[in-house]
């Protein structure tokens, strides 16, 4: 055991007799150890590292391709949406124009209909006025005739005898009946 610990303890001592030992001088052994470790890592880890880098490169390329495809799909969908928007805007403008035209047409139809209704009401009013005037004229004629008849009867009654009176009444009643048939 002492040999092993002595070999760790000997600092910077290399015997020329060919003994083997560990050099613990950090400044002298560190670059050599690191170059050996790096050499072994590069020699054995080169394939693994290359595979890891290739896999990473493929994932990155696949992600880029996928992103490009998604971007192209999104651009295509955006163009379709823009085309649909333009189409809907054109249709909305047509509906708006047609709606205004339809409103104007309905307005004029309503105005014309109202004018015709007012014209018919005016005609009905005028017919009613003429009818009422004619009825009033006929009533006045009948009253004038009745008063004239009563006045004539009164005059006849005072001047006529009973027999003449009866003949006159009968004649007047006959004339009155004939007049009534004519006026009806």
TrEMBL record:
InterPro entries for this protein: ATP_synth_b/b'su_bac/chlpt (IPR002146)
Subcellular location: Membrane; Plastid, Chloroplast thylakoid membrane
Recorded coiled-coil stretches: 71-98
Protein name per Swiss-Prot or TrEMBL: ATP synthase subunit b, chloroplastic
UniProt keyword list: ATP synthesis, CF(0), Chloroplast, Coiled coil, Hydrogen ion transport, Ion transport, Membrane, Plastid, Thylakoid, Transmembrane, Transmembrane helix, Transport
GO MF terms, alphabetically ordered: proton-transporting ATP synthase activity, rotational mechanism
Cellular component per GO, a single term: proton-transporting ATP synthase complex
Major localization class: membrane
Quaternary assembly: F-type ATPases have 2 components, F(1) - the catalytic core - and F(0) - the membrane proton channel. F(1) has five subunits: alpha(3), beta(3), gamma(1), delta(1), epsilon(1). F(0) has four main subunits: a(1), b(1), b'(1) and c(10-14). The alpha and beta chains form an alternating ring which encloses part of the gamma chain. F(1) is attached to F(0) by a central stalk formed by the gamma and epsilon chains, while a peripheral stalk is formed by the delta, b and b' chains.
Pfam families: ATP-synt_B
Entry-linked HAMAP family: ATP_synth_b_bprime
Protein task: Component of the F(0) channel, it forms part of the peripheral stalk, linking F(1) to F(0).
Signal peptide from the UniProt entry: none
Organism whose genome encodes this protein: Rourea microphylla
């Amino acid at each position: 055991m002492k040999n092993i610990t002595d070999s760790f303890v000997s600092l910077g001592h290399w015997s020329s007799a060919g003994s083997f030992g560990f050099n613990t001088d950090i400044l002298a052994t560190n670059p050599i150890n690191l170059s050996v470790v790096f050499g072994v890592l590069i020699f054995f880890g080169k394939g693994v590292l290359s595979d890891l880098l290739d896999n990473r490169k493929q994932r990155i390329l696949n992600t880029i391709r996928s992103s490009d495809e998604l971007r192209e799909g999104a651009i295509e969908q955006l163009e379709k949406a823009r085309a649909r928007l333009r189409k809907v805007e054109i249709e909305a403008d047509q509906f708006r124009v047609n709606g205004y035209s339809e409103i104007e047409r309905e307005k004029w139809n309503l105005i014309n209909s109202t004018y015709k209704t007012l014209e018919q009401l005016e005609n009905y009013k005028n017919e009613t006025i003429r009818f009422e005037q004619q009825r009033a004229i006929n009533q006045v004629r009948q009253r004038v005739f009745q008063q004239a008849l009563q006045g004539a009867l009164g005059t006849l009654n005072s001047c006529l005898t009973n027999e003449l009176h009866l003949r006159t009444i009968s004649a007047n009643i006959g004339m009155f009946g004939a007049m009534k048939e004519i006026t009806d």
